[in-house]
């Protein structure tokens, strides 16, 4: 019999405190029954003041393996995910080799299964080698053991309108979705940061909002025309929110995501030329941050996804123009959402469960994740302490890279425990391969 | 002043102090023996990641006139072209004991990175970074403007004076110009009114936050504003190709709209001066007639560049917050 956990006085979705019993991989009991059925061997977790959420599901993670194991591996990235409260991640396709065949997506899926920290759902490339010319074997990836449902050339935009149309149409056959990185390439050649007042002053080539909005506008119309569903990656501008709102009002089957960093940071961060703030799409203005927060609160934006993009030090320890785009996010996402949305009164914890768990699971067609907190449901759960405060120290995180834009920031909330099908991957804030912190003391390499 | 990275680092008092110090430096340069002992034993590294014969020679001359040891490090033919990072280059120079690093780099912000990374202890002087800043160019332009247009056209002492009320028009590729960015900030700090004139494609989105007026009509600006100084920016011919973005249709159309030709030259007020940071494209942004006219102070800008850079190196390395320069000959 597997380990049983009795979560004492936790608040499901921030509601009234109850006891919850986890046994045999599922939620076995809630309320008075829980302690009655727990039995003498159950491990008790003091949940006073803690919020119980369904395990978080990330629709947009870069695990970097195969190819860039110097930045992250499936093992280190999924361990970081568990520490951040996730129980499933979608591994983006821009690996080397590209995740554009059944063989590569199955490899990533198996690495994830062997690591055992979260469920890894590989994303398949839309086009061969992300080159934007020829459709990858989408059907083969969908039919593989990895059961791919999300397809994306993320990092690059499927800019050819014909290819995009075909991809939208083709994925209908297996209930897939195209997740578009919306970036008109000609309008963003050489672009370094948001085009506006700050870029004009500090002399970095601009990435105009219209380059994102023009692609989103085109894609929602294509999705409408062919009757396919579309997912918009890391939407970042006020105009994009307006287009999505319009598309939904027309009944177009579109979903949209925003990243934690676009909910919190602005292009003002670029003034110090620290490439840790270089990201694609770029950090936008305060007005855009307000618009994406409002869009997330009113449901125009469906989910928060991390776009966790680890990079080795040498790719950020250089002049801005030479640096790589991207920032880590798995271990700060929940805290950022709490600060930007919950602590500001714009969302409840039930909303957090919706945007970080149930809706991303639904978009990715991940059947046993993002489920209701009810008896008999899989025990994929996250226990968070909203009262905690912590200072971000990237070197102490699970991710193998240190490019967090929140370094040194004090953020609210901490993940106390994460359960994957009833098994604790994180307990007392510690990863369960290192429950007392001794492994970290002798170096993170040992833990991996 | 620990570094000079941007014209924005200079408040009015500091900027005037640099100009006054440059005036004292210039006074020493008319002597038979031009060398001063001020920076003897100090090392100035010219770290140039981008070709620039003029600016490098200007800094080299300035440093040598102050008796500093000068090391020229250019990216071509060095380990930089073999892929060495800015960080490693900076640490190498630090190990060799550079007191000041004069850096020109194609990436905006590289001097800022160098100054704030802890890779070097030396003073960092930005000699032009990407499309960001070129503060010593702005200082030498301000110095030149002050010499000609303040204090009764150079006949009275201009020490301590700013550029209050002078009207300066800057014409050309503002979008890609670090000279324009630096000049807008510094000239504004010194009290001048700046008008930028360019085709709309060569004006950055976001320019509305700059302390300058923007116009697309050079003739109207020359007629309405009667500028005291007209500064022509270099326009790179590749900007008109589609590969470069196709910012204007043809050199001829550009010249017609924004070039300083004889007709526009004659429309200027009698006292007005014509400036250009060089190198010039004669026949594109400036005609030979304008470039060679008595109003043109372009060659003098080069000479003033040495004096201004001497002042900057002196103020950064000699460390005093004073304008009393030791002027004994070496």
Features:
A: 448 residues; alpha/beta; Urease, subunit C, domain 1; 2 domains; five-stranded parallel sheet; 19 strands; 30% helix; globular; disordered C terminus; B: 330 residues; Rossmann fold; four-stranded parallel sheet; 12 helices; 9 strands
Explain how this protein is built:
Chain A has 14 helices and 19 strands. By secondary structure, chain A is of the alpha/beta class. Chain A folds into two domains: 5-52 and 375-447, Urease, subunit C, domain 1 (Roll); 55-363, Metal-dependent hydrolases (TIM Barrel), CATH 3.20.20.140. In chain A, strands 1, 2, 3, 4, 5, 16, 17, 18 and 19 form a nine-stranded mixed sheet that branches. The longest helix of chain A is centred in the middle third of the chain and has 18 residues, at 209-226. Chain A is globular, with a radius of gyration of 21 Å. Residues 441-448 of chain A have low confidence and may be disordered. In chain B, β5 (167-171), α7 (178-189) and β6 (193-197) form a beta-alpha-beta unit. Residues 321-330 of chain B have low confidence and may be disordered. The interface between A and B is medium-sized, with 24 and 27 residues.
């Amino acid at each position: 019999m597997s380990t049983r956990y009795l979560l004492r006085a936790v608040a499901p979705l921030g509601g009234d405190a109850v006891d919850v019993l986890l046994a045999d991989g599922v939620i076995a009991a809630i309320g008075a029954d829980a302690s009655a059925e727990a039995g003498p061997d159950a491990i008790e977790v003091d949940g006073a003041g803690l919020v119980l959420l369904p395990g978080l599901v990330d629709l947009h993670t870069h695990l970097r393996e195969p190819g860039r194991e110097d930045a992250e591996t499936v093992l280190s990235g999924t361990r970081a995910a568990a520490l951040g409260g996730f129980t499933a991640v979608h591994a983006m396709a821009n690996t080397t080799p590209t995740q554009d065949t059944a063989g590569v997506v199955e490899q990533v899926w198996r690495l994830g299964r062997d690591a055992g920290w979260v469920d890894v759902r590989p994303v398949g490339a839309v086009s061969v080698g992300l080159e934007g010319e020829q459709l990858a074997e989408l059907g083969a990836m969908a039919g593989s053991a990895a059961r791919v449902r999300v397809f994306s050339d993320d990092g690059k935009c499927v800019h050819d309108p014909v290819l995009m149309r075909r991809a939208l149409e083709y994925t209908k056959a297996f209930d897939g979705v195209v997740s578009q990185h919306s970036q008109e390439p000609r309008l963003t050649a050489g672009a370094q940061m948001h085009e506006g007042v700050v870029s004009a002053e500090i002399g970095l080539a601009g990435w105009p909002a219209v380059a994102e909005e023009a692609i989103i506008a085109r894609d929602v119309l294509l999705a409408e025309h062919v009757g396919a569903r579309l997912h918009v990656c890391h939407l970042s501008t006020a105009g994009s929110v307006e287009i999505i709102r319009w598309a939904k009002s027309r009944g177009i089957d579109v979903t949209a995501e925003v990243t934690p960093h676009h909910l919190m940071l602005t292009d003002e961060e670029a003034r110090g030329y620290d490439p840790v703030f270089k990201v694609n799409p770029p950090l936008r203005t305060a007005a855009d941050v307000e618009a994406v927060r409002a869009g997330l609160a009113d449901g125009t934006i469906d989910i928060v996804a991390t776009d966790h993009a680890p990079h080795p030090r040498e790719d950020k320890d250089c002049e801005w123009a030479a640096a790589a785009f991207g920032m880590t996010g798995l271990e700060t996402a929940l805290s950022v959402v709490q600060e930007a949305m919950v602590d500001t009164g714009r969302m409840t914890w039930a909303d957090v469960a919706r945007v970080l768990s149930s809706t991303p699971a639904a978009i990715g067609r991940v059947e046993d994740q993002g489920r209701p907190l009810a008896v008999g449901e899989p025990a994929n759960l996250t226990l968070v302490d909203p009262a905690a405060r912590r200072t971000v120290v990237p070197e102490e995180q699970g991710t193998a890279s240190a490019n967090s834009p929140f370094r040194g920031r004090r953020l609210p909330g901490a993940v106390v425990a994460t359960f994957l099908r009833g098994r604790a991957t994180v307990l007392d804030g510690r990863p369960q391969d290192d429950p007392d912190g001794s492994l970290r003391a002798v170096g993170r390499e040992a833990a991996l | 002043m620990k570094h000079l990275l941007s014209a924005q680092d200079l408040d009015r008092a500091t900027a005037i102090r640099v100009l006054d110090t440059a005036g004292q430096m210039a006074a020493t340069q008319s002597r038979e023996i031009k060398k001063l002992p001020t920076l003897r034993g100090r090392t100035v590294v010219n770290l140039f990641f981008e070709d620039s014969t003029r600016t490098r020679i200007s800094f080299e001359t300035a440093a040598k006139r102050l008796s500093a040891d000068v090391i020229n490090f250019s990216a071509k033919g060095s380990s930089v072209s073999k892929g060495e990072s800015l960080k490693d280059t900076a640490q190498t120079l630090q190990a060799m004991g550079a007191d000041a690093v004069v850096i020109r780099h194609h990436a905006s912000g590289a001097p800022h990175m160098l100054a704030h990374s802890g890779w070097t202890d030396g003073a960092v002087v930005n000699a032009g970074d990407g499309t960001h800043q070129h503060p010593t160019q702005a200082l030498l332009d301000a110095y030149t403007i002050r010499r000609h247009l303040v204090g009764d056209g150079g006949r009275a002492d201009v020490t301590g004076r700013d550029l209050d009320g002078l009207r300066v028009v800057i014409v050309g590729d503002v979008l890609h110009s670090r000279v324009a960015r630096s000049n807008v900030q510094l000239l504004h700090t010194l009290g001048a009114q700046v008008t930028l004139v360019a085709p709309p494609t060569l004006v950055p989105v976001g320019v509305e936050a700059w302390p300058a007026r923007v116009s697309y009509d050079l003739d109207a600006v020359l007629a309405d504003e009667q500028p005291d100084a007209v500064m022509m920016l270099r326009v790179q011919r590749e900007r008109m190709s589609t590969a470069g973005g196709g910012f204007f249709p043809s050199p001829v159309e550009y010249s017609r709209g924004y070039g300083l030709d004889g007709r526009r030259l004659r429309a200027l007020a009698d006292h007005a001066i014509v400036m250009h940071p060089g190198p010039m494209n004669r026949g594109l942004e400036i005609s030979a007639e304008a470039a060679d006219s008595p109003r043109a102070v372009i060659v003098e800008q080069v000479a003033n560049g040495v004096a201004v850079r001497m002042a900057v190196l002196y103020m950064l390395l000699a460390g005093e917050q004073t304008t009393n320069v030791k002027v004994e000959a070496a």
